[in-house]
Amino acid sequence: SIPLSFFAGIGGASRRGILVKGANILENLSKVKTVLFDKTGTLTLGVFEVTAMHDKEDHDNNDEEEKARLLEIAAIAECASSHPISKSLQRAYNRPIDHSRVSDIKEIGGQGITAVVDGQKVAVGNEKLMEQMGVQYCHCHTAGTIVHVAVEGKYAGHVVLGDVVKQHAAEAVKALGAVGVARTVVLTGDADAVARQTAETLGVGEVYTELLPNEKVEKVEAIISETKNGKVAFIGDGINDAPVLSRADIGIAMGGVGSDAAIEAADVVLMDDDPRKIAKAMRISNKCMNIVW
Ligand code: ADP
Ligand code: MG
Fold first, then answer.
1. Coiled-coil segments, which residues (predicted)?
2. CA–CA distance, 228 with 221 (Å, rounded to integer)
3. What is the pTM of this model?
């Protein structure tokens, strides 16, 4: 039978906006020694600022009309996506979208979107997508997440999105050390430079970048098999990482921004996306285990 204190623990957690899906999960939370983070939407706001729009030669494009056209194409192509990049493009565009202008939308996890906009074939995404489409893109060194745009197989330019670290993310990482977490890792589909900078800012020890969704799963499996002590938790927003949430010993989903699939796949759901809740959940679990044993 399940000890009474587990019900108290699960109840106490839920009052703090932490949904723990069962007594065994509450027990496992106290054994977590390794925490893997998704980046966009989890450690960073996933609400980007459009910092610049460049033309093909990577010069600041001062032709306002062409800039506006680039943003419009990207926003229209992305109109059906729930990815944080899409949301920030919609926000930057800030106009209602006529859905009859777009068709054949295909979202490619970890890469971007292809669609037909105003009768033209459009690709919006990262370098991998451009390579896949055989598009010559600019290898720009601007700080931030670069969203490339190609029209009819020709490079049209890019939008630079500045990823913003969540207010309490550094505190959240530090709090994990205090509850006995020995290893922290960022797993991300984003570019190396921007991800390393985020990890360094937050004091996360390891970073694996430019991972496709299936490569994230493989990385999690490798980390689980090399971990001798304790459980491995993964925390993500569920956009492109629902399979990882179910593969980890404990999958923790950000409930506020996460998809239904993520909430389903997760063992723990944080209702308000505050990453400090991870350590909080572990503290509740520890307390509970002390009462039981
Ligand atoms: P993370 O692992 O940081 O949460 P994702 O796996 O969701 O990131 O995406 C990885 C990368 O793939 C993004 O940084 C972006 O370059 C590209 N990408 C994914 N989805 C989209 C999209 N809808 N539009 C544009 N780019 C995208
Ligand atoms: Mg993400």
1. none
2. 13
3. 0.83
Residue 184, ligand 1, Cβ within 6 A: no
Q: Which ligand is nearest to the CA of 159?
A: 1
Cα-to-centroid distance, 45 and ligand 2 (Å) = 10
Distance 165 CA to ligand 2 centre (A): 13
Q: Is 40 in the pocket of ligand 1 (CB under 6 A)?
A: yes
Say if residues 235 and 255 touch (Cβ distance below 8 Å): no
Per-residue pLDDT of the chain (293 residues; tens, 9 = 90+): 677 778 888 999 999 999 999 999 999 999 999 999 999 888 988 666 666 666 555 555 557 777 888 899 999 999 999 888 998 899 889 899 999 999 999 999 999 999 999 999 999 999 999 999 999 988 877 777 889 999 999 998 888 887 788 989 999 999 999 999 999 999 999 989 889 999 999 999 999 999 999 999 999 999 999 999 999 999 998 888 889 999 999 999 987 766 788 889 999 999 988 899 999 999 999 998 887 65
State yes or no: is 241 an active-site residue: no
CA of 145 to the centre of ligand 2 (A): 13
Protein fold of 49-162? Calcium-transporting ATPase, cytoplasmic domain N (3.40.1110)
Q: Start-end ranges of CATH 3.40.50.1000 in the chain?
A: 4-45+165-292
CATH 1.10.443.10, domain 4-45+165-292, yes or no: no
Residues of the chain with CATH 3.40.1110.10: 49-162
Ligand 1 neighbourhood includes 125 CB (under 6 angstroms): yes
Ligand 1: which of 106, 108, 111, 194 to mutate, most ligand atoms within 8 Å of CB?
111
